[in-house]
Amino acid sequence: MSLWPVYTGTKEPHDGITELPAPPPWRAFDGGPVLDTPAEDADTAASSPDRVHRAATYRATEQTVQLVNAALYLRRPLLVTGPPGTGKSSLAYAVARELKLGPVLRWNVTSRSTLHDGLYHYDPLSRLYAARQAAAAAPGTPAPESGIEDHLRLGPLGTALLPYARPRALLVDEIDKGDLDLPNDLLNVLEEGQYEIPELVRSAGADKAPAEVMVDGTHERVPVGHGRVRCRAFPFVVLTSNGEREFPPAFLRRCVTLRLRQPDDSRLADIVRAHFDGEPDAYAQTLISRFLARVGGGDLATDQLLNAIYLARSSDLSTDSLDALAKQLMPHLGEAKRPDAF
Fold this sequence. Notes:
Blueprint: H1 49-57, H2 62-74, E1 78-81, H3 88-99, E2 105-108, H4 115-119, E3 120-122, H5 124-137, E4 152-154, H6 156-160, E5 169-173, H7 182-192, E6 194-196, H8 198-203, E7 211-214, E8 221-224, E9 228-230, E10 236-241, H9 249-252, E11 256-259, H10 265-276, H11 282-295, H12 302-314, H13 319-329
Parallel strand pairs: 1-10, 1-11, 2-5, 5-10
Antiparallel strand pairs: 3-4, 6-9, 7-8
Helix pairs in contact: 1-3, 11-12, 12-13
């Protein structure tokens, strides 16, 4: 009998991922050889102190908990949309921390990003340079062959789809900033849970040993046989979007979609308690009220409120000076819909 929810949004780190039932028959994968998921202490699973803090202090809504578990059970990507600063990227780190999924693999999408960037990077020029260096060091003798795998590294998506025994966590941040074709290009890879590396496929022989390839975020190498990668435990994939464009229906139907809203008064107070380890004081409550009053005039990020509260707690400025500073720290991130009162 499985345990729902596996991700609770409140518990300390646990091994609940092992409670997941078998995947649906149409989402079962059998890649190999099986790799051990990189193990780290739960509080150092994020890539920086900032991410460690955000993972530990993230406060999930009931809707968020339900849809994260739906994505985990169905082995589907989670598409998280919402205004800037609502915790879209922090969610991936919070889930990875609670479920002990190891370091989060992060792919920051730009307007120039392609599917190839997420899967792997091969540098033929460095291979040519290495061959020339070897020939120059030992003139007249055959240069040792430099394998393709020595100049190839898997990207975040390519690493997440390796046949790990436990799912990895992958954050594809701001996918709406990518090329128009990127969501469609992702369809087959995310649906099939596998991909090929043509450079390795061409060089692979029937009896050739698997290539040892470097993975994202580390100098460790993993075996890739015949240039083909197929996952075993489908990764927990979080795709974030600021809602800057619409996605094709074929892409949307393959995702579980979570729409985050600006937090209300009680949730903001809960966020402040988590970040500052205590109840909001009177001035912090005043800032929360002002923040909520300004949300209707344009986009605001929760980080802006936290910055203002931190300075109010850490400085000895007068109330008038704090008011003026808080106004400067909480400008609208987009075009205001009404006068910018504070």
